[in-house]
C-alpha cells in the first residue's frame, strides 16, 4: 500500500507544479492582454473588446488552478494556537476533521459537476468556447484535491506528521 501512496503523492506533486505553471501563465496572459489593450486604446482611441472576457476567463482559470496549489503547499489560512495548546492529539483530531470536511465538500462539488456542466451551454461572449470550459479547471482541481485529502487522512491515520508541521507552522 505504501508504494501506491508514494506514487499517488508523486503524481499529485507533478500536477501541483503543472497547475502552478498554468496559474502563472494565466496571470501573464492577462497582463499581456491588458497592456496591449491599454497601448492600443492610447494609440487608436478604440478598446479591444475581446480583452475583458478573456481576462475574466483567465482570472477564473488562474483561481481554480491556484486553488489546488495553495492546498497542496499548505498555504491556506489556519488558526492553530488553541490546537497547539491542546497537544498532539488535538492536532491529529483537527487534521482528520478538516480532511473529512474537505473530502465531503470536494465530493459534493464533483457530484454536482455533471448537472453544472450540462447547464452551462452556449458560447461565451467574444470567446469561441462553450461556457462549461469556465468550470472545467474547478472540477479538475476538486477531483485532485479529493485525492489529496484522502491521501492526507490516510497519512494522519498512519501517524505521519502534517505537512504544515513538517515545514514549520506560523505558530512556532
Task: Give me some keywords for this one.
disordered C terminus; 6 helices; 76% helix; mainly alpha; two-stranded antiparallel sheet; 172 residues
Flag low-confidence runs.
Answer: 167-172
| Count of the domains | 1
The biggest beta sheet reads: 2 strands, antiparallel
The residue-averaged pLDDT reads 91
Order of SSEs, N→C? HHHHEEHH
Q: So how many helices?
A: 6
Give the overall shape: elongated
Level of helix content? over 70%
Using only C-alpha atoms, the radius of gyration works out to: 20 Å
| Secondary structure: number of strands | 2
- What class would the helix/strand composition place it in? mainly alpha
**C-alpha termini separation:** 33 Å
- Indicate the proportion of strand residues: under 5%
Describe the 3D structure.
By secondary structure, the chain is mainly alpha-helical. The chain has one domain. Helices cover 76% and strands 3% of the residues. It is built from six helices and two strands, in the order ααααββαα. The chain has helices spanning 2-44, 51-72, 81-86, 88-119, 136-157, 163-167, and strands at 123-124, 127-130. It has a two-stranded antiparallel ribbon with strand order 1-2. Strand 1 (123-124) and strand 2 (127-130) form a beta hairpin. Helix 2 (51-72) packs parallel to helix 5 and helix 4 (88-119) packs antiparallel against helix 5. The protein is elongated and about 65 Å long. The two termini are 33 Å apart.
Amino acid at each position: 500500500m505504501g508504494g501506491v501512496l508514494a506514487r499517488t503523492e508523486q503524481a499529485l506533486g507533478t500536477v501541483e507544479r503543472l497547475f502552478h505553471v498554468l496559474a502563472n501563465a494565466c496571470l501573464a496572459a492577462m497582463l499581456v492582454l491588458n497592456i496591449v489593450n491599454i497601448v492600443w486604446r492610447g494609440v487608436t482611441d478604440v478598446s479591444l473588446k475581446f480583452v475583458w472576457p478573456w481576462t475574466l476567463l483567465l482570472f477564473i482559470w488562474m483561481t481554480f488552478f491556484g486553488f489546488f496549489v495553495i492546498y497542496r503547499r499548505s498555504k491556506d489560512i489556519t488558526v492553530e494556537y488553541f490546537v497547539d495548546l491542546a497537544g498532539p492529539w488535538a492536532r491529529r483530531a483537527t487534521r482528520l476533521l478538516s480532511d473529512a470536511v474537505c473530502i465531503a465538500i470536494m465530493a459534493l462539488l464533483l457530484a454536482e459537476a455533471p448537472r453544472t456542466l450540462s447547464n452551462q451551454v452556449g458560447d461565451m461572449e467574444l470567446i469561441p468556447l462553450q461556457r462549461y470550459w469556465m468550470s472545467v479547471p474547478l472540477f479538475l482541481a476538486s477531483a485532485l484535491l479529493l485525492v489529496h485529502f484522502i491521501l492526507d487522512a490516510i497519512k494522519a491515520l498512519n501517524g505521519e506528521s502534517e505537512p504544515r508541521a513538517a515545514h514549520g507552522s506560523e505558530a512556532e
